[in-house]
Amino acid sequence: MKEIVLHKKTFLLLATLALFSFACNLLAPSARSNPAAAYGVEREESLYLVGSQPRTLDPALTYGGPDGPLGHIFSGLVNFDTELQIEPDLAAGWDISEEGRVYTFFLRPNARFHDGRPVTAQDVIFSWERALDPALGSDTALTYLGDIVGAAELHAGEAGQLRGVQALDEYTLQVRLDSPKAYFLGKLTYPVAFVVDRDEVTETGWEREPNGTGPFTLAAWEDDEIMVLARNDDYYRDPPPLPHVIHLLDAGLPLARYETGAIDLVGIGGSTLERVQDPNSPLFDQLRTGVAMCTSYVTFNAARPPFDEPLVRRAFAYALDTERLITGVLDGHALPATGILPPGMPGYQVRPALYPFDPERARSLLAEAGYAPGELPPLSYTTAGYGDVNAYVSAVITMWQDTLGVDIEPVVLDPFTYNDQLYAGNAGHFFSYGWCADYPDPQNFLDVLFHSESPQNLGNLDVPEIDALLEAARSEPDVAARLALYAEIEAALIDLAPAVFVSHSLNAALVAPHVKGYELTAIGVPQWHRVAIER
Q1: Taking the complete model, does pTM exceed 0.85, yes or no?
Q2: What is the fold of 292-505?
């Protein structure tokens, strides 16, 4: 899950949508030429990035994907490579039973924590049971580990251990699922499934000196200043070519720092992207572009009247000119959403406009729902920011007020705690949101976001018919039949209008010529251990 709250997933957009999923970890550099010199870092051989202050380095509690510092300090059984193919990580390999319900993972005997202790099957079991422990309060554990037998009982406090996992020996782990799930391995790439040190995580402040298993160690972390990752020379796979990866956390001007060589890679958009796309630009040859598997939208809170009524939700959908939002506020640097699934996702379809801007139809639907002009109660719009609302949210509110004659009050929350507030149920009648894929399967969007029992169903949609279809699709063994089910589900969800689906993100980044091996991916994946500096 990479909610786009800068996205999951990074990363993590909120509805400004001028930020891209790639920019989850790329925000602002330091003004010094080598601000990590005090930590023994050689500028010429290290990778310098810009980033935001991490909310947490606890894999079980993060809302972000594995492409940031956390995903390089810790690791799990499997991972995605830059081609979005599942590859072995802590597990050297695995067997899947004929019926698809039992997975047997064979851990690498040479896998070690950063302090040198071997990683065993019991460490995986401990990490998963800790993540599912209701006392920890993880909002993502059940989403990504919930297919394992006994996970729901453990998460509900009805069991003391995870029944579906067993250490067959020190380096062999057997996992039993409640039913066959084609996407199960993809779920294990999310940080909540990563391994933590059982002897460390009970200590206060352990995140400051995490004993992970990943390709880098955390050498230094100064709040809102800098994070220094150092190469793990005892990494169980090939050690990273980079001796250090530096994340600069202080405020500044990213593009200016990139142009002066202070950082080596930066995400861009808006007018900057337009300028760099000019073949005459000196930065043209350093530009990388692509489509992210992300969808941005404005969610209707179906638990709060009047949005418990589909007619009202459809009315607001027709009253929002999404084309104008994309061409105006976003400067055209996004793709119009013609559905919920983003481009590149299996099952993605290009459709006509979901709800073309139609003020008359919008007002007619409101009247059908029993609301004459001016009769809707005052509504609240929850968004993230500091102080005033951004141009995107302001445009959305203005369109709805002008078209429907409704009074909308923005409620601006601290971006650092925005997800926490939404998961706690502190959302207004509608709120800014977005989702980036954690694995390339339509279940990661349609089921995770809209099943009534999903923790990520923040809009509180509750439709038993949709739930039944989603549950049927989970275990459908035939690929074509499964995608057909998801197409039916997506069409039904669009008709229910749980949100206004606005756009799909575009990725754009400048990558310095001396950075070798970096790939701009549609899903954020750990890859700094593959990158080298060749000046």
Answers
A1: yes
A2: Dipeptide-binding Protein; domain 3 (3.10.105)
